[in-house]
Design a protein that fits this description.
It comes from Accumulibacter regalis. This protein is of the alpha/beta class. The chain is built from eleven helices and seven strands. Helix content is 37%, strand content 13%.
Length: 265
């Protein structure tokens, strides 16, 4: 397969020694820049060499005009393309849809470890979609407005209710607006039908499953199912919402991840 032109953000480790590579994989409707608000600068200061990729059709990567043609397998190939350019296996950090990309990558490739943030459960996104439709009936119209950058008071409140903690300010939500975009219909269908697919291979490697106590998309009581598949450690961040890397409680999530990563060094 011809390599796609992928845009990546690189924040080198601060200091004379590096604790290794971290590759951050964004979730649905997002871009690599969602990691650069807080996580990339923070983890680079902790001594990690940090990379975040725009998946195909996202951000500044190739393929925006054919976004709907890309599926999870394509995104896993993107991750492999970035990982293969590094001099040693990386720790893979995925968020939401990005956790499925990481899991799909691991069916064929090696990694040093994996951190799955707000992971999509093995049953897929259908349950979460139906729940949100019932509890937040205006969500889908408000999400469409948010993707277009058309924010009003209801849009801000709906995005906060579904994706963030109540402590996340409206000013921050407005500032984050440019970090998001539309998502591939094919990728969303892959996530909807996830329960119908069996993993080809699941390697043994250190893994951490991380979620927010106030996650309205994938509540923390679902984390154990993902953790069981990977024999992973589990951490729940008090009061945090779904979008852990941008939430008001992002630092608590980052510190918990760094504490776990320190045990790998």
């Amino acid at each position: 397969m011809k390599p796609r032109r992928l845009h990546t953000l690189h924040r080198p480790a601060v200091g004379t020694t590096s604790s290794g590579h971290l590759i951050f994989v964004h979730g649905g409707y997002a871009t690599a820049r969602c990691w650069d608000e807080y996580f990339l600068p923070w983890f680079s200061r902790q001594g990690f060499d940090c990379h975040a990729l725009d998946l195909s059709g996202h951000g500044k990567s190739e393929g925006r005009e054919r976004l709907d043609s890309f599926g999870i397998d394509d995104y896993a190939q993107d991750l492999a393309q970035v990982a293969d350019d590094l001099d040693e296996p990386a720790v893979l950090i995925g968020h939401s849809m990005g956790t499925v990309v990481v899991e799909r990558f691991l069916e064929r490739h090696q990694a040093r470890a994996a951190i799955l943030m707000a992971p999509v459960p093995a049953t897929g996104i259908l349950g979460a979609t139906m729940k949100i439709a019932l509890t937040e009936p205006s969500f889908f119209s408000q999400q469409a407005r948010a993707i277009r950058g058309e924010y009003n008071e209801q849009t801000l409140e709906t995005m906060r209710e579904v994706y963030y903690s109540q402590e996340t300010s409206s000013e921050d939500l407005m500032r984050f607006a440019g970090l998001f975009q539309g998502e591939s219909r094919r990728a969303l269908m892959d996530l909807t039908l996830l329960a119908m697919r069996l993993a080809r291979h699941r390697p043994k490697l250190p893994a951490l499953v991380l979620g927010g106590q106030s996650d309205a998309v994938f509540p923390p009581d679902l984390l154990g199912f993902t953790a069981a598949r990977w024999h992973a450690d589990v951490a729940v961040i008090p009061r945090a919402g779904h979008t852990l890397m941008l939430d008001a409680h992002w630092l608590a999530a980052a510190e918990r991840m760094a504490e776990w990563l320190d045990r790998l060094v």
